[in-house]
């Protein structure tokens, strides 16, 4: 160091003293640090440094040539030089650069100081071996890195000025202060790398074998090598900025490659030995455990990039080599779960254990592309077979007890759905296989294949089960009912004929609401059926609420006007489009009801001019009291039954023909109504013997009907309002026709919508595009689609191409 550079000597003396104190972990005040920072900054602005640079400028050409010579010498060093020779060359180069690059004196003083410090420290570490050397290495590194980070901030002026200028001048021997300190570390400790790597592999093997090791040491040593590595990325932009990023070459060469090789050998040996002594089920658990351990190991104390290189090799050794056995074990577990019946806590525990075993096997198989497909196929087959068996077991009782049908389906769904969720982590491939199997056995089974039945039968059974659950008087509590409704919705999602379910459910809901038998409005709202259908149901609920308000206003009106109405009179005004009620045949309303009906009609038309009221007699009802019996009974009857019974207030007997003429009830409807009244012994006919085999056709027009004055019953209130079978059959026929017409309309709309968007499509493409649009409601049949296409051609919505008959064009 030149004695003439007074300010430089003073600054370096203070800096070197501060560095010694920091390496000795002595405290440094903020004032001291700020003084050092300012002194370094002031030196770079001083006249002393300017004079050095001016003298150097006079000898610029010679300096440039000398720098080039030094750079070439550094690049041309022989590879087999000893570390001592390299250090000597580096020191010589630094000293020469120090002499010929004025202004960088502090930089080179710092570099030489760090070299001397680390050389001394390294010599002190020669007495340590294995983990003790690791501790020494980590402790030295942490202290060195911390001090260098502090120094880098103190030398900010050098980084931003002199070093930046040198980099722009293509002087690649100059780095920023922190990077230079990392390079010094590499140079001093490079010969220890192989020893450290060997110790590191030995520690990992000990840990794999179950011995306790200080894993934090391994992580810290690896982090040292990652942090100390660097590479330069010179960005050729306007600012000529230089960025220094981590370089993993040392880590990869001395740590990663040996680690991966050692890992392969270790697990190749272990997997072979383990399978010789243990079952495949036990091996699956062991392999899964080992994979988890290695992933955690890499994430904890190796660089993240190592994992993507290591995993494929582990998968090949631990899984692919034994894949066939693993797949067979997974399918074996799946079969055991299929056949197992859950009875008691012990069985549940065993089942949970099998599910956990299957989950572990799945975790291995899913690491290999397409390896899970055989298991998915087996899952689909087992689900289908179990579903078919369950339905075959209860097919005889389905028509009388739809509950058993739904519960059988749901039990199978619940069992295998849990397997998909818990064992296969609900992955899409397994869920799709499971859903496909459910769709098959739910829509195509012994019940739907029975004579006179179809897949639509399932939809009807579902609706009937809903009706049973949602009626008032159900013994189950609300939470249990909600659970069963959820089960129904699970089955609903799989049925093909969703529109059939919606129609039957809508009709049954209408009856429940009109008869005031709905247990809960909240349970009735089926969002799973879609927004359009749910909106229609909401319209029905709204009609009921509005009718309640309307009835209250009517009674208030009658009270004010002093009008007399029938006791407990109630009425519902329903929008025809929202309710699936067909128009009732006209008949003569009993004169006892006529005044009240006329009064309400007048009241309503005043409030809503232009609207027309139409009575739905089939769903109207009332109560009559018997005055001719000793015990007074209350008969709950339909409007038709009421009209017939009230006739006998004026006469003792009437022929069937007379009853039809006076009431204007059609004969085919009147006979079933009379049959109910005769069988219940409210009315009697001397020409008829009442028994279970009595049919409506046994009642002739000239038979005389009269009141049975000996009528007796254990109940005071007797419900005679029963569904007429002939009417029910006609409704079923109408439902079938309505569903068919609705489907045709939807198919035609889908065809027009698609062909309008595409302008032109061939037959196969058109069918392929419209089917997905309709499957949310029903499964369209190809013949029906073709028939609808022909109808639309006749209606001139589209036309066939003259040259290609399979090509359709939209007609605007």
Automatic annotation (TrEMBL):
Q: Which Pfam families match?
A: Cullin, Cullin_AB, Cullin_Nedd8
Which segments of the protein form a coiled coil according to its record?
none
**Which InterPro entries does the protein's record reference?**
Cullin (IPR045093), Cullin-like_AB (IPR059120), Cullin_homology (IPR016158), Cullin_homology_sf (IPR036317), Cullin_N (IPR001373), Cullin_neddylation_domain (IPR019559), Cullin_repeat-like_dom_sf (IPR016159), WH-like_DNA-bd_sf (IPR036388)
What protein is this chain from? Cullin family profile domain-containing protein
Q: Name one GO biological process term.
A: ubiquitin-dependent protein catabolic process
Where are the compositionally biased (Basic and acidic residues) regions? 74-91
The leader peptide range reads none
Q: Which residues form the Cullin family profile domain?
A: 457-678
Name the protein family: Belongs to the cullin family.
What GO molecular-function term can you cite, just one?
A: ubiquitin protein ligase binding
Annotated region Disordered: where? Answer: 65-96
Q: What keywords appear on the UniProt entry? A: Isopeptide bond, Ubl conjugation, Ubl conjugation pathway
């Amino acid at each position: 160091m030149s004695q003439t550079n007074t300010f430089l000597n003073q600054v370096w003396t203070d800096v070197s003293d501060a560095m010694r104190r920091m390496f000795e972990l002595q405290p440094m005040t903020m004032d001291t640090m700020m003084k050092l920072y300012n002194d370094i900054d002031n030196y770079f602005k001083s006249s002393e440094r300017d004079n050095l640079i001016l003298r150097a400028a006079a000898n610029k050409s010679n300096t440039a040539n000398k720098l080039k010579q030094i750079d070439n010498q550094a690049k041309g060093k022989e590879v087999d030089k000893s570390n001592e020779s390299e250090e000597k060359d580096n020191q010589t180069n630094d000293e020469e650069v120090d002499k010929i690059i004025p202004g960088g004196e502090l930089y080179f003083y710092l570099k030489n100081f760090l070299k001397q410090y680390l050389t001394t420290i390294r010599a002190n570490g020669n007495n340590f071996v294995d983990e003790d050397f690791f501790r020494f290495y980590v402790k030295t590194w942490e202290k060195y890195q911390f001090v260098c980070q502090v120094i880098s901030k103190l030398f900010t002026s050098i980084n931003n000025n002199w070093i930046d200028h040198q980099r722009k001048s293509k002087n690649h021997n100059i780095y920023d202060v922190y990077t230079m300190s990392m390079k010094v570390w590499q140079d001093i400790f490079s010969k220890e790398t192989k020893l450290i790597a060997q110790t590191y592999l030995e520690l990992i093997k000990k840990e794999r074998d179950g011995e306790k090791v200080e894993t934090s040491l391994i992580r810290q040593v690896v982090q040292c090598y990652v942090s100390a590595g660097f590479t330069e990325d010179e960005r050729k932009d306007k600012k000529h900025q230089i960025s220094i990023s981590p370089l993993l070459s040392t880590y990869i060469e001395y740590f990663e490659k040996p680690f991966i090789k050692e890992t392969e050998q270790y697990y190749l040996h272990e997997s072979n030995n383990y399978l010789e002594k243990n079952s495949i089920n036990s091996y699956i658990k062991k392999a899964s455990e080992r994979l988890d351990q290695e992933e955690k190991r890499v994430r904890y104390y190796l660089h993240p990039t190592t994992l993507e290189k290591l995993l494929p090799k582990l998968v090949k050794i631990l899984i692919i080599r034994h894949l066939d056995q693993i797949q067979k074990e997974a399918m074996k577990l799946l079969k055991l779960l299929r056949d197992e019946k859950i009875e008691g806590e012990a069985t549940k525990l065993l089942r949970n254990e099998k599910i956990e075993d299957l989950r572990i096997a799945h975790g291995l198989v899913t690491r290999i592309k397409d390896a899970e497909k055989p298991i998915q196929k087996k899952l689909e087959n087992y689900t289908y077979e179990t579903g078919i068996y369950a339905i075959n077991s209860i097919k005889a009782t389905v028509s009388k007890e739809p509950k058993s049908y739904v519960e059988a389906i749901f039990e199978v769904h619940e069992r295998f759905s849990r397997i998909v969720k818990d064992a296969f982590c609900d992955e899409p491939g397994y869920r799709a296989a499971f859903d496909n199997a459910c769709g098959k056995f739910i829509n195509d089974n012994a019940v739907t294949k029975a004579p006179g039945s179809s897949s639509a039968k399932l939809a009807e059974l579902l609706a009937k089960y809903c009706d049973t659950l949602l009626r008032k008087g159900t013994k189950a509590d609300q939470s249990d009912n909600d659970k069963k409704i959820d089960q129904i919705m699970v089955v609903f999602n799989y049925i093909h004929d969703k529109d059939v379910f919606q129609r039957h459910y809508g009709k049954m809901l209408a009856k429940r609401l009109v008869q005031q038998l709905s247990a809960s409005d909240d349970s009735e709202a089926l969002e799973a059926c879609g927004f359009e259908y749910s909106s229609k149901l909401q319209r029905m609920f709204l009609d009921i609420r509005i009718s309640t308000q309307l009835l209250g206003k009517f009674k208030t009106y009658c009270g004010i006007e002093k009008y007399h109405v029938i006791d407990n009179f109630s009425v519902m005004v329903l929008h025809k489009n929202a309710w699936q009620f067909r128009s009732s045949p006209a008949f003569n309303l009993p004169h006892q009801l006529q005044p009240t009906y006329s009064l309400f009609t007048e009241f309503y038309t005043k409030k809503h001019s232009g609207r027309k009221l139409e009575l739905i007699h089939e769903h109207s009802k009332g109560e009559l009291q018997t005055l001719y019996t000793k015990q007074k009974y209350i008969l709950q009857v339909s409007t038709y039954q009421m009209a017939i019974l009230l006739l006998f207030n004026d006469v003792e007997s009437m022929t069937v023909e007379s009853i039809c003429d006076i009431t204007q009830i059609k004969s085919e409807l009147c006979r079933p109504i009379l049959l109910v009244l005769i069988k219940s012994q409210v009315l009697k006919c001397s020409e008829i013997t009442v028994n279970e085999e009595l049919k409506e056709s046994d009642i002739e027009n000239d038979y005389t009907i009269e009141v049975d004055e000996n009528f007796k019953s254990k109940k005071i209130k007797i419900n005679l309002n029963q569904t007429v079978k002939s009417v029910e059959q006609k409704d079923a026929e109408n439902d079938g026709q309505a569903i068919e017409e609705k489907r045709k309309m939807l198919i035609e709309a889908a065809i027009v919508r698609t062909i309008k968007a595409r302008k032109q499509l061939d037959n196969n493409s058109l069918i392929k595009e419209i089917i997905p649009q309709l499957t949310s409601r029903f499964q369209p049949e190809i013949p029906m689609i073709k028939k609808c296409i022909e109808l639309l051609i006749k209606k001139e919505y589209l036309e066939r191409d003259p040259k290609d008959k399979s090509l359709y064009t939209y007609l605007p």
